[in-house]
Design a protein that fits this description.
The complex is a heterotrimer of chains A (about 300), B (about 260) and C (about 350). In chain B, about 40% of the residues lie in helices and about 25% in strands. With about 260 residues, chain B is an alpha/beta fold. In chain B, helix 4 crosses helix 6. The two termini of chain B are about 20 Å apart. Chain C is built from 14 helices and 4 strands. In chain C, a hairpin with a 2-residue loop joins strand 2 and strand 3. The chains are: A mainly alpha (about 300), B alpha/beta (about 260), C mainly alpha (about 350). The interface between B and C is small, with 4 and 3 residues.
Chain lengths: ~300, ~260, ~350
């Protein structure tokens, strides 16, 4: 995580520092937003909180290691292949496991995702070992640091992350608003019964939501891995993005962006001015504050609270 | 009944909830192509359960068709999943939650997997008002507009048979009259067969060709809609037209008991 | 009832009795005797396993009270264990406090945290409540690690074995009896709570909160009480854990530990104290079983460094399997097996016409 945020500023230049902090916030917010939209997509479509999202994102990132050796010399092809594999993995997870949990109580489904997360972690260690890996090297990509106006610096992977997040959100908004499948997905989230009456296959829509969620999460995971290396602690980043999604409102994509910005700003500023050790707890402090003040989130729907 | 094989035929259908509770029993009814058929009955008579048995919605309530057959164009369709039923051309307009509240009217009309080409334009044609409301979120529509949207969205799925649950529920009489006319128009212009479940017998019998009356989970009467409308019991207990002298509570009870025995 | 055949309960007192029939009393006596004799025949490895099971069962019973009976899901159980352990560690390290001070102190800290963990439950339900306990877990975890780094105990705190006057509990056999007593006390306390007003109130809240409220049950108070009792017991388990291991480190209280406790409740079977015990036994023994399975393989040394990962994956798999195929947990299996023997040869058949 700390590596994903661009290099610390040089010198004591105050303005340079604040610009650097702003850049760090933007990068971290992009990470949280890109991961967080996965939580929102699944929750909004199927009312399941996917606590295995961090693990699924990690699996997609590890798949980059596999595709890197397959497509050596074509980093973009490897990247795309791995992201698409993530989509398949997500959909497969729904079809194999979570489909059986539909109609169960909400908490049983959440606990199933927790169990799934543990299973995936075990599998990742079994397949790729517990050592830190560098998919950037495998792809032959050096991740140069870029200078920004104002003296701030950002790594190429972090810059790619910000752009990817913007593109992913633009794509998701367009998909949900203008495409048939997107509208079906929204419909299924609002009233699954009626959606089925209109001929929509709910399992297909849910599988698509899981696939897209793993796809976007995988994009984040791969870019983080390119920036800072790849090991099991990536799961923690996935989990820290969850407060961002909830602060914004679990059923709102706009909310996920707002939540990500709030959480990232709080985290970067508190780390910088108070204590670096706070990094892993700040998102959850923000989350607790939000749950006490406005549990349904900034942009969420209030009725969500009564769904038990 | 008209000649030829019916479009939809229920044969001695029995539905059991939670494996023990029998909701309807021995229901036999036929819907011929191009007809409007009314299914009448009071609360709890089993009308909605019968509709659900046709539309494949029993599974969600842990219920099943345990006896008999539901045949659509000669093929058995009982206990099939709802999206498959829709794909075969049977579309249900449910009693409650009939629109997607956070989708706009236009989006409601395309949030489906239609049989054949999508027909959102048909909905606008039948209900010009919907075209004006195109961009509005369905949650902000009035009851009548909502029912129009629900009917329009069902038409947009390209149905052959339309199941309408409680067309008149909670709507003003004027609106109901208008909607009933639209149903006739749907049948006349598009050739869509309609099975209409209603508590409001005058409205239903006013547009229907044939009527069935359900009580206590059984079909107790059926017949030509006009003749049914003239039937003494129907006039008294569904149309509220008394034959002159007032009936006592005991007589009403007696009537209900006799109905149960006929069934 | 001299002429009646069969077995009748003729008073409420009888209905509430913990040990009802003579047969039950007899089997309980035999069971207790076996438990008492166990440490004198078991190897030190088995003794350690038993001790771990007793520790786990305290936490599992505590979580069962909260989740299985009061219906409040908590993903922050490891935080409460950590709080208990750290209370002991800090008091021993900073004030050299004796056992009889640290244990009540841990209980007090647990109770306090129970209120903190429980407060969101007054406003939140289900999913959102689970999330709030998860967040609080991270906060407790942070405070623990902060203490370790600030005071320079980054590798952990050594805790000397507890002493009550001249009596020092240090060997495994002594620990066996201490932990057995603690676990037994927890079980009896839980059973007593469950057959009292609070137990009935919790079950009512679990089944339907609004109805419970309409019945005149003070829902907020009972919810908080469930959190307080559960957290207190858990913190005591954490304190005992610290003494038993002789060492406290925040590393031991990962999120995985929280999940393990939730797994105990699920695998054991919701809404049953016996289930909590079975679940605790299952989860405690599981890694050893995996290790034993790997030992059986032709070349065990090749897989030695995979044990951890296999353990993880298998644990996730087992949890998924229970959620999917046996939602009633081990206790459900146990009941079916028992009924089969009780009813034999009159087998139950499912109702006709069902799938």
């Amino acid at each position: 995580m700390r590596g994903a945020v661009a290099a610390q500023p040089r010198g004591n230049h105050r303005r340079g520092l604040s610009i650097q902090l702003a850049v760090n916030i933007a990068v971290l917010a992009s990470i949280y937003a890109l991961i967080g939209c996965g939580y929102v997509l699944i929750y909004r479509t199927s009312r399941v909180l996917n606590l295995a999202h961090g693990e699924l994102m990690m699996v997609a990132a590890y798949l980059l290691l596999a595709t890197a050796s397959l497509f050596s010399g074509h980093p973009l092809a490897a990247f795309a292949a791995s992201a698409l594999l993530g989509l398949v993995v997500g959909a497969a997870v729904y079809l194999v496991l979570m489909r059986k949990m539909t109609g169960e109580r909400v908490l049983a489904a959440v606990l199933a995702t927790v169990a799934l997360g543990i299973l995936l972690r075990g599998i990742v260690v079994l397949v790729w070992s517990a050592q830190q890996q560098y998919p950037g090297q495998a792809l032959g990509w050096s991740n140069p640091a870029l200078a920004l106006p104002g003296g701030a610096r950002i790594s190429a992977a972090a810059a790619a992350l910000v752009l990817t997040t913007a593109a992913a959100y633009a794509g998701l908004f367009a998909f949900l608003r203008y495409t048939r499948w997107g509208i079906r997905m929204r419909a299924a989230g609002q009233n699954p019964l009626l959606a089925a009456q209109r001929g929509i296959r709910l399992h297909g829509v849910y599988a698509l939501a899981w696939g897209l969620s793993t796809f976007t999460g995988g994009l984040a995971g791969m870019l983080i891995a390119l920036d800072a290396g790849l090991e099991q602690t990536m799961v923690v980043i996935g989990l820290k993005a969850f407060p961002a999604a909830l602060v914004g409102g679990l059923d709102s994509l706009v909310g996920a962006i707002a939540g990500a910005l709030i959480v990232a700003a709080a985290e970067v500023l508190l780390i910088h001015y108070v204590n670096p050790l706070l990094a892993d707890v700040v998102p959850f402090l923000v989350l607790i504050a939000m749950l006490l003040a406005r549990p349904w989130g900034l942009f969420g729907t209030r009725e969500e609270l009564d769904r038990v | 009944m008209t000649t030829g094989a019916p479009l939809l035929a229920l044969e001695q259908v029995e539905v059991t909830y939670h494996r023990v509770i029998t909701a309807v029993q021995g229901v036999t009814l036929k819907v011929a192509r191009g007809q409007i058929v009314a299914l009448l009955g009071t609360n709890g008579a089993g009308k909605t359960t019968t509709l659900r048995a046709i539309s494949g919605f029993l599974g969600l309530d842990d219920a099943r068709v345990t006896e008999g057959a539901v045949a659509y164009r000669g093929e058995r369709i009982e206990n099939r999943p709802p999206h498959e039923i829709t794909a075969r051309g049977i579309v249900l307009v449910p009693e409650r939650d009939k629109v997607f509240p956070n989708l706009s009217v236009a989006e409601n009309l395309v949030a489906n997997v239609p049989r054949g080409a999508p027909r959102a334009d048909l909905a606008y044609e039948l209900f010009p008002k919907l075209a004006e409301l195109r961009g509005r979120e369905a949650g902000y529509l009035s009851g009548g507009e909502r029912q129009m949207l629900a009917l329009g969205a069902a038409i947009a799925c390209g149905p052959e048979l339309l199941l309408v649950d409680e067309l008149s529920l909670g709507l003003a009489p004027v609106v109901v009259q208008d909607l009933a006319k639209r149903l006739q128009e749907i049948r006349d212009r598009l050739g869509i067969t309609i099975l209409l479940v209603e508590q409001n017998a005058p409205v239903a019998l006013g547009i229907a060709d044939w009527g069935y009356v359900m009580e206590n989970g059984r079909v107790v009467l059926d017949g030509d809609a006009a003749r049914l409308g003239a039937h003494q019991d129907i006039r008294e207990f569904y149309l509220g037209q008394s034959s002159g002298e007032r009936r006592s509570y005991r007589e009403v009870k007696q009537y209900r008991r006799s109905r149960r025995w006929y069934g | 009832m001299p002429f009646a055949s069969g077995y009748f309960r003729t008073s409420y007192a009888r209905e509430l009795r913990l040990v009802d029939t003579r047969a039950q009393a007899a089997s309980l006596t035999v069971f207790l005797a076996a438990l008492g004799a166990f440490p004198f025949v078991a190897s030190s490895f088995l003794l350690d396993l038993a001790n771990q099971f007793f520790l786990a069962s305290i936490g599992a019973v505590a979580l069962m009270l909260l989740t299985g009976y009061a219906g409040q899901v908590s993903l922050g159980h490891a935080g409460l264990l950590a709080a208990g352990a750290f209370t002991v560690g800090i008091l021993v390290k900073e004030a050299n406090a004796p056992f009889w001070v640290t244990l009540p102190a841990a209980a007090g800290v647990g109770a306090l945290l129970g209120v903190v963990f429980g407060l969101p439950s007054l406003r939140l339900r289900g999913l959102y409540l689970a999330v709030s306990t998860l967040a609080l877990y991270f906060v407790v975890h942070y405070v623990g690690s902060e203490y370790e780094t600030e005071r320079g105990f980054s590798t952990g705190i050594i805790v000397d074995p507890p002493a009550l006057g001249p009596l020092v509990v240090s060997d495994a056999r002594a620990w066996y009896f201490v932990l057995l007593a603690a676990a037994a006390a927890t079980v009896v306390l839980a059973l007593n709570l469950l057959r009292s007003r609070s137990g009935r109130a919790w079950r009512a809240i679990r089944d339907h909160e609004t109805v419970a409220e309409a019945l005149g049950i003070g829902v907020p108070a009972y919810k908080l009480a469930a959190f307080v009792v559960s957290s207190m017991l858990t913190a005591v388990a954490g304190a005992l854990f610290a003494y038993y291991r002789g060492f406290v480190s925040i590393e031991a209280f990962s999120l995985f530990l929280s999940i393990q406790y939730v797994a105990m409740v699920i695998i054991g079977g919701m809404g049953s104290i016996l289930g909590a015990l079975l679940g605790a036994a299952f989860v405690t023994l599981f890694p050893y079983a995996i290790e034993a399975l790997i030992e059986v393989l032709p070349t065990p040394e090749r897989y030695a460094n995979l044990v951890f990962a296999v353990n993880y994956a298998a644990f996730g798999l087992v949890m998924v399997a229970f959620l999917l195929f046996e939602p009633e947990g081990l206790v459900g299996i146990w009941r079916r097996v028992r009924d089969w023997f009780v009813l034999w040869p009159f087998r139950q058949r499912p109702l006709a016409g069902t799938k």
